[in-house]
Amino acid sequence: MSSSRVIKSFRQLLNESKEQSRRRLVIEQIISAMSLGVNLSPLFADMVKAAQTTDLVQKKMIYLYICKYAEENKELLILSTGTFQRDCQSQDPLVRGLSLRSMSSLMNKELVEYMAREIKKGLMDRSNYVRRIAVLATVKLFRVSPELVLDTEIEKKLYSMIAEVDPYVSINSVVALNEILASKGGISITQKIIIHLLKRFHEFTHWGQSIVLGLVANYAPQSEQECLQILNLLDNYLKSGNTSVILSVSKVFINLINDLPNLRNQIYDRIKNPLITLVSCSGDEMAYPVLKHIYLIATQLPNLFANEASRFFIKGSDPTYLQEIKIDILCEIVNKQNFKQIIFALASYVINSSLNEHISSYCIRAIGKIASQLSSYFDMVIDYLMEFIELDIPHIVEASMIILKDVIRLFPEQSLEIVLPELKRLSEIIHTEEAKVSLIWILGEYGEKIDEGPYILEKFVETFSEESSEKIKLELLTSVLKMFFKRPPESKKMLGVILHEATENSNEPDVIDRGLFYYRLIFTDINKTKSIVLSEKENFTRFTENDPLELFEILMDEFNTFSVVYKKPYEQFKRIIHKNEEEEEEEDDDSSTDSSSFSEEELLDQIQQNVNGLDINQQNQSQSQNQQNSQEEQEIELEPKFNLEPSEFQNKWMNSSHNLNFDFELDEELDKDSFEEILKENNFQVMASGLIQSTIKIFCYGKDISNNQIGLFQLLITGVNVKLNAKGTNPQFLKLFAEYIATVLTE
Amino acid sequence: MISGILFINELGKVLISRIYRQDITISFIDQFKIKVLAAKKTTNPIKHVEGTTFCFRRIGSFFIVAVTKKNINAALVFEFLNTIIEIFKGYFGEKFNENTIRTNFSLVYELLDEIIDFGYPQTTETDILKLYITRENQRQTKKSKESVKQISIKATGVIGWRQEGLKYSRNEVFLDIVENLHFLVSNSGKFLKSDVFGEIIMKSRLSGMPDCKLGLNDKVLLDKRSGGKRTKMKNTRGGNTPIVIDDVTFHQCVKLSKFDTDRSISFVPPDGEFQCASYRVTENVKKPFKVIPIVKERGAITVDVKVTVISLFSENLFAKNTVVRIPTPPNTAECVITTQTGKAKYDPQINCIVWSIKRFQGKEELSLSAEVNLIRGKQSVWSRPPISLDFTIPSYTSSGLRVRYLKVVEKSITEVVKWVRYLCVSKGTFQVRI
Questions:
Q1: Global ipTM
Q2: Which of A273, A456, B9, B317 could cross-link with B247 by S-S, CB 3.0 to 4.6 Å?
């Protein structure tokens, strides 16, 4: 979409607004349009010019603008250096800081010399506000040209600035060095630096504290005594009101365990309570990463939180993501003491209708997982599962059957005693696909142990042809074949039926394939088939592999980062930034414009309204301004000696894509010649003119210098009434053109 | 660190975008729209898309999103988002919504520029920010020279959260102790879960740089003291029985090292309101109410409910706006309710009998009985969710926490008016199994 009118209007407003408060409003509107996604890049030169204001409010906004559009206006950027430099000399530290911050944010190669000079000055500035900005600006300079920073005075200066009294300067120096030296593994963490930072730890903001703690976590204390000192000093900060600080202290503590293995349990005990409190006291969003960290610790130290199970019980008001992670934690911390409590809680969630289906299935899976961990209680688990199945709520039955199948696979001997007698009843009450598949699997695997086993299967076979689920059909084929080898007399007929149905009357290729495969197998070698179908299965004791210790150790190393939240080492989810960023950026602009569905007209109106809102109070000024306004509004300037051949004119007249009709009145009546004269004075070219009765008819054209647009028009003048018919290729231009004609004639 | 901050509404319209580091491009906002806004399932507040992480918090109809490329500390990001929200609320009041952002976008940009530089959080103390922010008071175009000077002095100070040179003609301190109860009680009255989450909120209007010292009836502290000769002290001081605090966190201004050595809470408070401490107590907590539920299923179509609620706190106190929610089976058709006090009615939307009592005096016994008629037909199991209570009890703490003293030391202050209030609150978190 072209926003040329918006830009034009802004440019004009900028030029005409002399009074500060009005200018401020105009600039505010520009920033507003910018955040709406209008591309205001063409205003760059005007805005740079406007930056010479003394009004800090305007300056801040203009610098924001400059930073945003600097990329697209590289060639004009040099214009702004003067302003930046002047502002860096300002008396007001706020202006110096602002200028330095903005200039360095441009990260432009052309400006690198100016940048370096001002940064060096900024580092020595008498105001700590400016110094702290200058410190971070060194990183930006480093990004543009590393050689100006690395191994130079700047680097040395930064090290010395860590010792500054101002806590912001000190912390910023640490982060700046850390970034600049990233390729060398970050800032060199010496004992001296650590002692210095820890000594004044209380002075820093929470953010600063978190950064210092990040350094301490990477620091290898020289002696056990030093470890203990750090431990004691930071112990207080487990009471900090800031989650980030508490987690960062926890990380330091965990890292110190390597040096103090005998204190391992005490250390974990220290961080346990603060973490639990964080879960209950913070908002949902914050609780999420904290719970993820607790989960990580719980996977390796389940007993640490075993007595606190009730803290991880879910609340109806918890969002799903919290409910899930809490259930995960419960699965990890379960032991013989809290088993009943946890299972009871999970079971109550399953049947609690106020929780969503996803969570109740999740709980059933959790119950199955717990059964695999504490084998001695599996009978209780089976009882619960059977109860769930009888509830006859589809999603619960489904999940329960799957878990029941898994529990049987884990503890076949013991659990079959309970489940087998129930199979017939179960086969009558379950309806859902996955549940049926599980049931059929159980029947195929163990159904021979009960008398009615083959007959239950037979019931399913009877409805085989009506069955719509491919999954059930496939499972049934396999189960019937298994049954055939175990109880041949009762199953022979059923096998015949199902193979026939599968191969002859099925539509699903997979079902036909499997049927044919079994068919051929049996005919080739029946004994071999038996050994294949009834092959010994390996016993297994857990469903999923425990997370390898390795992963845990990596995650512990990356404690207090997103790695723990994603449960993945950083290596696995980081991505190198694309090289074709520029391309992407181009795309962005389009998309951002598209996505913000503003209408140009509305926007113009709004801008006009907002800016004019001020005028109500200042009518005197604005009247004169309005007059100027109307003069300046027509920025159309026509080429004086532009000439079109009559045929060209005719051609254009016939083929113009846009047409505009416009009526207006003149102040006084004029004759044909004076019309032509006015038009010629304003560089319009008259193609033809004539008088039909009392109506003057003029064909005319003109070419705008600035955008090379050509406009054609016809005037029909009767008395003071003028009918204008204009033609051109660009509707926006056409409108301006028509308005221009009207103003020319009315004056 | 943080590569950018976005304000984006539910419809995916970007209200404000401020990018601090060039490692992300605006096209990533679209990723947020696709992966979070357009996703049918509610996702967790940390979303990873191709090496970029979005951390977001919803506020009414819009989201504040922090975007980063680095593997950083998630808690810091959320603490920071929370802080931003607090700052904006400080500027715009509680009505911090899409509209206020739209009308104040330039102030929002200005704030975002001062609180983060190149992705690193800088000043986030509202008091200090006021010195940098020009926009707040539009009429005052030229900052007073004094405030310019302060910028240099400020921030150097160890006390970053308080502006120097405050002056009040009347010095006042308000302390609010608010306890949120998270109780789960069995139908026989046994505690299954007893968590009290308390907050100490201080609101002060004090001149100068006052040193405050707050004394609580904390068991560790009193034991320490009484270790010597003054064994009787805990009984003489207004009958304070010491309590055991499981865990406590403090505002940044509290000198933690002092708390560690002698359990005293001393601090120079920020001006205005702030949360001084939050704590958790689980032992020896008192129940404000005893609830005796009797729920009998009579046949397949009727359930008889009788609930008796007894207030256990002193008769001088009362609970405000007590609401007892008694769940009924999902196939409830109607409830015939009889009660002497308060209003009660069946709410089919939440499947509960809602019984509200405006003022519940201490040491009082109220009861409600109801006959719940069920819809005949498909019988489904009733999970019997717990009864939940809402209430607010002024001047009462479940943990027994008391403020023993609050000392304010500052040269320029001669007299301080101190107010201490206690409040015990449950918002459906006091639950009784039936």
A1: 0.72
A2: A273
